[in-house]
Specification:
By secondary structure, the protein is α+β, with helices and mostly antiparallel strands. It has one domain: Subtilisin Inhibitor (2-Layer Sandwich). The protein is 39% helix and 25% strand. The chain is built from 5 helices and 7 strands. The strands form 2 sheets. Strands 3-2-1-4-5 form a 5-stranded antiparallel β-sheet, with helices on one face. It has a two-stranded antiparallel sheet with strand order 6-7. Helix 3 runs antiparallel to helix 4. The chain is elongated and about 100 Å long. Keywords: Signal. InterPro entries: Subtilisin_inhibitor-like_sf. GO terms for molecular function: serine-type endopeptidase inhibitor activity. This is Subtilisin inhibitor domain-containing protein.
């Protein structure tokens, strides 16, 4: 009986030691991981009207966010990391606006834009115009990328 008690005692010690070691082996995470901006390489081409020169520039998101190319001053002065944070929602809103089955018949101006590239491994290709309510809605969703347009003229 004494042997049985010793075996149970030793087994209990081994189990307790194993549990204590296992607790130390599990890393404790105090802070949730930081949300990262989407990885994206987006090229933007904006044409104020059919006779104007197209302005081409790019937005890079991820580890080293930034603008490149001929980004207009009002876009280049926007912190790229902030624009990148909102990019997925803005791209989705523009897609929804352009996919609408009915659009208001209003003319917002001659401006056109192309937004192409890759965001989080997904292709992005949006052709935006301001010739109806759907295009105006898409432009407004992408305003940090495309810039404001009022009364048919680009605002610089």
């Amino acid at each position: 009986m004494a042997r049985r008690g010793m075996r149970i005692g030793l087994l209990l010690i081994v189990v307790l030691l194993a549990a204590a070691c296992a607790e130390d082996a599990i890393p404790v995470v105090d802070e949730p991981p930081e949300e990262q901006a989407p990885a994206a390489e987006i090229e933007i081409a904006v044409q104020p009207d059919e006779d104007a020169t197209t302005t081409e520039y790019a937005l890079r998101c991820g580890d080293d966010p930034g603008w490149s190319g001929d980004a207009p001053t009002d876009r280049a002065e926007l912190p790229a990391d902030e624009v990148c944070d909102d990019l997925p929602d803005r791209i989705e809103a523009a897609r929804e606006a352009l996919a609408a089955e009915t659009c208001t018949q209003e003319y917002g101006g001659p401006q056109t834009a192309s937004v192409t590239g890759v965001m989080d491994g997904e292709d992005v290709h949006l052709d935006v115009h301001r010739t109806d309510g759907c295009g105006i809605g898409a432009w407004e969703a992408l305003q940090p990328l495309l810039g404001p347009a009022e009364n048919g003229e680009m605002v610089e």
